Amino acid sequence: MSVNVHVDSASGTDVGKLRTLNEDAVLDLCPVFIVADGMGGHEAGEVASSIVVEEMTAISQDEPTIESVRDALHRAKVRIDELSEKGAKRPAGTTVSGVVMVFLDGEPYWLVVNLGDSRTYRMARGEVSQVSVDHSEVQEMIDAGRIDAEQARSYERRNVITRVLGAGTPERPDYWLLPVAEHDRWLVCSDGLTTEVPDDVIARTLMNEATPQAVVDSLIGASLMAGAHDNVSVVVVDAWRGSDAVIEQTVKLPLPEEDEHTVKYLPNERVEP
Predict the structure, then answer these.
(1) What domain range includes position 123?
(2) Does some domain include residue 264?
(3) pLDDT score recorded for residue 143
(4) Checking phi first, is residue 40 left (phi over 0); if not, alpha (psi -120 to 50) or beta?
(5) pLDDT: is 213 or 45 the higher one?
(6) Is the pLDDT of residue 53 over 70?
(7) Which of 20, 45, 76, 232 has its Cα between 20 and 30 A from that of 126?
(8) Using CA atoms, how far apart are residues 151 and 143, in angstroms rounded to an integer?
(9) CATH number of the CATH domain containing 141
(10) What is the pLDDT of residues 83-108, one digit of tens each?
(11) Radius of gyration of the chain, Cα coordinates, nearest whole angstrom
């Protein structure tokens, strides 16, 4: 059975109030929606994030697959590592987070990918949740029970991330596979948003604003109002199905040669008609 999926999206990025260089890069090109937050300055970070967008743009031209996403990230890593080898002053690296619509057996799924502390949130059935898990020192402290979410906002090493794409580190992104549900709304953002704007404000904005562009404008505006100490980038995607099909089966990501603990196999939830 053929399933029609309708998508509306918007994106925006701002250098912020303190930075002079925007090292973020965004891709808002259906079916690929990505935010990359580079590190290393003009000769490294800005280029690194742009490389991710270039490689992911290339796979958007055809129908992306799980394998093509993995291959694009690998190509990006190779190119980013070459920047450091060419004598950049600081090692080049970038976070990457976002969603890619893929089809399995004719059914649409969101492939969520994350590496670093940029984030991907999902709003479904009136609830907002963070799907990605930060690769950061502060998240490790939270997971260990040493600090809570409120203390994390002022933790002195909250900007230290533990995984990136490039910088000579292993290529270990996390993946999740979720079915396209009725009236999905996705938010992908750099930490320039989440370090300035609390999760409850983000959630209310996702629930209350009517269009993706309105969400983008509101969230970037909220970050600027809060001081915008870093670059801030936002991509918002609305999707709805043109079919009353119900997805019930469980699908395991066919990702060979990936470290088992870095891949999240999620049972697919029921999509109500």
Answers:
(1) 5-247
(2) no
(3) 61
(4) left
(5) 213
(6) yes
(7) 232
(8) 13
(9) 3.60.40.10
(10) 876 655 677 899 999 999 999 988 89
(11) 18
- 252 located within any domain: no
Whether 151 has a pLDDT exceeding 70, the answer reads no
With vertex at residue 214, the alpha carbon angle to CA 213 and CA 217, rounded to the nearest 5 degrees, is: 85
In degrees and rounded to multiples of 5, residue 225 shows phi and psi of -65, -30
Q: Given pLDDT bands bounded at 50, 70 and 90, which one contains residue 241?
A: confident
Residue with tokens 């492939």: 111
pLDDT at 258: 40
Within-domain flag for 266: no
pTM here is 0.84
Q: Which amino acid is at 207?
A: M
**Per-residue tokens: 74:** 């690998």
Residue 180 burial (10 A CB sphere; 0-12, 13-18, 19+): buried
Instruction: Tell me, yes or no, whether 170 lies in a domain.
Output: yes
- If you search the block for the tokens 């089966």, which residue do you land on? 249
Question: How many domains is the chain partitioned into structurally?
Answer: 1
